[in-house]
Amino acid sequence: MGEESLRKRKGEDSGKEDGQSIQSHEPQTMNLQKQAKLFIFPVGLISGICMIVGTIIGSGIFVSPKSVLANVGAVGPCLTIWAACGILATLGALCFAELGTMITKSGGEYPYLMEAFGPIPAFLFSWTSLLVTKPSSFAIICLSFAEYASAPFYPGCDPPQVVIKCLAAAAIVIITIVNSLSVKLGSYLQNFLTAAKMIIVAIIIVSGIVLLAQGKTENFKDSFKDSKISVSSIGLAFYNGLWAYDGWNQLNYITEELKNPYRNLPLSIIIGIPLVTVCYVLINISYFTVMTSTELLQSQAVAVTFGDRVLYPASWIVPLFVAFSTIGSANGTCFTAGRLVYVAGREGHMLKVLSYISVKRLTPAPAIIFYGAIAIIYIIPGDIDTLINYFSFAVWIFYGLTILALIVMRFTRKELRRPIRIPIIIPVIVTLVSILLVLAPIISAPELAYLYCVLFILSGLIVYVLFVHFKFSWPQKISKPITMHLQMLLEVVPAEEVTE
Fold first, then answer.
1. 313 prior amide bond cis, ω within 30
2. 8 A C-beta contact, residue 285 and residue 141
3. How many CB atoms are closer than 10 A to CB 450?
């Protein structure tokens, strides 16, 4: 009797325990998915401005001045191009502010193209961005960081390419790990690095103003003399200038994580981009106070040359803070681009595992790791100038298409709520400038590389038809066990579908 009652009691207890585990397991999983969907850490106004300023002011202002000047040939047109690029970036960002508050989904251009034109242009954008433009820009920024970080250890000569590439790869690995571990950590790191880079920007600008006050204005006399202006040279100068402004649309990649996006998205843009434009023009003026056009073109690293002439013996500050600046830009790019992979995976346009969320960290870890791995591959060729020209060409095809989507949706999607509504003339101007930027280099100086770029974009159509539209079963049979093993290794779960 005693044994039987004991067995019964044990059975009841185990039944209760089983029941509890079954009941508690389901809500726990659902709760994880809900938390994962929100990425848990919201981004406020200050973090939003820091994200824009921190991502834009990176390697560009320390790499591009030479290329912009080389294309236009004189100080006057060079400064005009820098100001014009800032105006274009601000107008483009205002268009994106309307899109971002009308369609509050993360993933930048991707959801806007999906809403306006359907899945094919959206897929081609994600195809090009994920495999070409985003990883290559991440690679360019990290290569620039490596050049400036290694410069003090090789005085009087260029650092070896092996050292630069190993440093760049190490930077990519560290940034990828930080952003995979915590959204909060990535955001705090961004705020710190933005503060550090504003110090070097302030040092260069204040030094330039002091030198101007002392009468160092000889390089600004006859500033338009010897300029070489053509449609092709202006197009390529804009490519290099706009590379320095790249990042003006970064907040649209994390719209779902913004606190009060209707207020904070436009405010971050209106404060952040004009601030960057003023800084860029003043930095270029500072460079020309101590260097002639010829000296600037001959300089291996413009900011380091400026530091050697103005800040000696404390010139080591410049490469140190430039390194902070570039690593901050790379961190901002990684923080936002990981979300694009996540959104594309969620729509079924990429491997499903890329849209999964870390159970413990609540970050899109598989997407960020994938992005970092592709960026490391781009370090191997490592030709910065060529990458900037050809991939700026690809980027502006999609910027133009996205802003055209805004114009189209004014007529086709009138029912959508628009908390911000900009005058229609702004997207029309930006679309026309985008067309000019894409066509000018092809017409004036046609090269096979532009054709290869277009062919690569269009090759995405083949991938779309085979794997997304027809959904052949054999790729799924291959990807299912890979997804399962990666899921266990990275401890990730599918995010719950957003019901609207």
1. yes
2. no
3. 17
